[in-house]
Amino acid sequence: MDNVFIRIQGVQHYLWRAVAQDGVVLDILVQARRDANAAKRFFKRLLKGLHYVPRVIVTDKLRSYGVAQRQLLPGVEHRQSRYLNNRAKNSHRSTRRRERQMQRFKSTEQAENFLAAYAFIYGHFHPRRHQLSAHAYRVIRSDAFKLWHQETCVRHAA
């Protein structure tokens, strides 16, 4: 789990993001605060969508995560480190790039809706390159584009 600052109409908000161990974005939430209540709200929303309890939670050293974890998931191991959550930190990079292209977000709802959809689309077209051979990577990318073309173009023609 990780959060990052974003500006929406000149006001600072926090983009909370949970990422699975294989890099898939599990949930996104945009909130105006970064306190214990905000962390609890994010944990509750995440757990409702997961339908299972995680074995380990990896976060940075923000104290709000610890408060929420102790109250909502007391039996789950909580690892706090500056470097262990690099997968979550790296998932923000595509968001920042897209945010600049869109010339910032206009509302929290627009940011949340867009980023939730964009995370899955980005993951569909960008498999984990470091885990694949060049041939396997090309095959996966071409299959992803074929599937995308099939799903989006057939609906418009019908």
Keywords:
53% helix, two-stranded parallel ribbon, 158 residues, alpha+beta, Nucleotidyltransferase, domain 5
What does this structure look like?
The chain has 158 residues and is α+β, with helices and mostly antiparallel strands. It has a single domain (2-126), classed as Nucleotidyltransferase, domain 5, CATH 3.30.420. It has five helices and five strands. The strands form two sheets. It has a three-stranded antiparallel sheet. Helix 2 links the parallel strand 4 and strand 5 (77-80). Helix 1 packs across helix 2. The radius of gyration is 17 Å and the shape is globular. The N and C termini lie far apart (41 Å).
Summarize the structure.
With 158 residues, the chain is an alpha+beta fold. 53% of the residues lie in helices and 20% in strands. The radius of gyration is 17 Å and the shape is globular.
Strand content: 15-25%
- CATH class term: Alpha Beta
**In this structure, how is the largest beta sheet organized?**
3 strands, antiparallel
Q: What is the oligomeric state here?
A: single chain
- Number of discrete helical segments: 5
Number of domains: 1
Number of E-state strands: 5
